Every structure is written in C-alpha cells, then in structure tokens.
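A.,

Following up on our hallway conversation. Structure tokens first:
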C-alpha cells in the first residue's frame, strides 16, 4: 500500500474526480472501526500476494478454485465460509496475516475470517470486470481502496 493509499484511508482525501470519498468517511456509524480493521487485513492480503491477480491465483491453487472462479466470472458469486477461507490461507502460508491482525485488534480470528469471507468475494467480483483478472502492475494490483471501502461498509452493516 502506498502512502497515498494510506492517506485516502485515514483522512478521506481522494483526488479522483468521481467524488468517491475516503474510506473512513464512508464508514460513519458504529461499524467504522470494524470495517477499517477488515479492510486493513484485506489490503494486507492483496499486498502480500501482488494484488487481485495474485490473490485469485493463491486462493485457486490452495483449495477455493470453484468459488474464486465464480467471483471472477460474470455469474453469481459462490459463498465461502470463514473456516474454508482460513484453511486456504493457512495452506498458502498467509494464515499469519489474519492471526496477527486478530491479535492486534483483540478479536477472534474466526470472526475476522467470517467478515473477510463476506468481503473478498464481492471485492474480487468488483475488481474483475467482465470476468477478467487485471494484470498486476504494482504491489496493490491497481487496488481501488475507495471501491472496497464501500463494499466493506455494506457487508459489515448487516
């Protein structure tokens, strides 16, 4: 994540002309801290694997192939449970990202995985328009944090 991405998250500043507000500005209300936490973990996962392309590849290779393909495709998204996501991340050597974040946040890792299992399908779906995984050109793979912030808020407000 770049310093500019961090500024968007922390301060709500966004130079995009489409009027998208920053992450925390989109998260007014009781779930702001929780949504920010889940978004941070999702961002860490994207960063560790090289963006959406890397995350799709890792999840497919380690047991979530059918589900991830549905997220990328143009049809409906197959759900994934928090436990299945956790098992897959463990197999891929990424379980520590969730464990460390849960420890820092003082939340149960399974709760965090449950929220990630809601967010990631929608995020991958949103970031793969027309059923195509974008080529990664940076560590964040062109990750649109503003778009994902809205998704995080939507899922955490349930």
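Then the amino acids I'd put at each of the 158 positions:
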């Amino acid at each position: 994540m770049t310093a500019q991405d961090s500024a968007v998250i922390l301060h709500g500043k966004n130079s995009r002309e489409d009027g998208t507000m920053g992450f925390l500005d989109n998260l007014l209300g009781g779930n702001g801290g929780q949504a920010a936490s889940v978004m941070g973990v999702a961002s860490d996962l994207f960063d560790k694997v090289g963006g959406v392309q890397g995350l799709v590849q890792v999840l497919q290779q380690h047991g979530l192939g059918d589900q991830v393909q549905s997220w990328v495709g143009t049809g409906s998204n197959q759900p994934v449970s928090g436990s299945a996501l956790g098992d897959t991340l463990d197999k891929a050597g990424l379980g520590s990202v969730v464990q460390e974040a849960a420890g820092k946040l003082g939340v149960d890792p399974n709760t965090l995985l449950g929220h990630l299992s809601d967010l990631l399908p929608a995020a991958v779906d949103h970031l793969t328009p027309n059923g195509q995984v974008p080529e990664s050109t940076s560590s964040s793979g062109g990750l649109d944090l503003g778009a994902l912030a809205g998704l995080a808020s939507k899922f955490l407000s349930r």
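Helices lie at 3-11, 32-49, 52-72, 82-91, 95-105, 109-127, 145-156. Curious whether your intuition agrees with the design.

B.
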